[in-house]
Amino acid sequence: MVSKTLVLALGNTLRGDDGAATAVLQSIRAHPTLPDRTDLVDGGTPGLETALLLEGYNRAIIIDAADMGLAAGEWRRFLPGNGRLPARDTHLTGTMHTAGLAEALALGDALSILPPEVIVYGIQPADIGWQEGLSEPVQTAVHQVAAAILRELTTPPHA
Fewer CB under 10 Å: which end of the chain, C or N? Predict the structure, then answer.
């Protein structure tokens, strides 16, 4: 079986630091040698359909701005099972317009379409108001997260 890796950026570039993942993806895309069978996708701001983007891959690396209660620009790498992905509606009882990454991963798990390996990189935003451009601490984190993901891409997926 041939391994396929998805690097998926989530966020809105018109909302300040919410565009951090897109900036990370652009930095990775500029790297001269990406491993074969690596797809770089800017997923924008989807809801539950994020689960469908993950189908068919051996590994998914997801990048997103996330309020983790850290200082602006701090970032974390975690697996959905060992990190805290705050769900907006843990039982999916409300409107699907509020569904985020945690809900999409729960749906993907329920449908058995998640890759065997899912890794999330969260970047703490400073400001996600209606403005273009990243704050200085988040811009600094973009380069760090891109470098970490590039290192990760040289490691074969598990399973």
Answer: N
**94-130 confidence digits (pLDDT tens):** 433 345 788 888 888 888 889 999 999 999 999 998 9
How far apart CA 44 and CA 41 sit, in angstroms, is 9
pLDDT of residue 44: 86
Read off the pTM: 0.86
Residue 2, pLDDT > 90, answer no
Give residue 89's pLDDT band: very low, low, confident or very high (50, 70, 90). very low
Q: Which residues 6+ apart lie within 8 Å of 10 measured at CB?
A: 21, 43, 44, 45, 46, 50, 62, 63, 64, 101
The secondary element (H helix, E strand) that includes residue 146 is helix 136-153
Domain range summary for the chain, segments of one domain joined by +: 5-118+138-153
Tokens coding 119: 């890794």
Strands 117-123 and 38-42: unpaired
For domain 5-118+138-153, give its CATH number from 3.20.20.150, 3.90.550.60, 3.40.50.1450, 3.10.350.10.
3.40.50.1450
